[in-house]
Amino acid sequence: MAMKKYTSVSEYLDDYSGKHLTYMKQIIELVTLLEPTAKPSIARGMPAYVLDDIVVAFYAYKHHVSLYPFNTEVIDRHRGLQGDHAFAKGTFQISTKFPFPEKTVRSIIEDKLRNM
What we know:
35% helix
């Protein structure tokens, strides 16, 4: 079965509910708070917020929402902050089994914005 191709962030969000939707909306809220000029877009097949480049993208999986800053140095600098969540190559995996890690997500977004 082919992956659905989305044309907008809102179209992507329409396919989700529960914690996945809540966590993705919290990511959006933080991005737009920290960089109000960031625009929603589909980048690399994922919902994203962009300036001249991608600030962050995110994607829902069965048990987590992945946050992609597309900067391995940003991810590496935050590895000690994960708590109940996990880091994988290039991504912060936000488990839907635990509370949303606002402090870590905020720090990752701020770091990415400083390093764009």
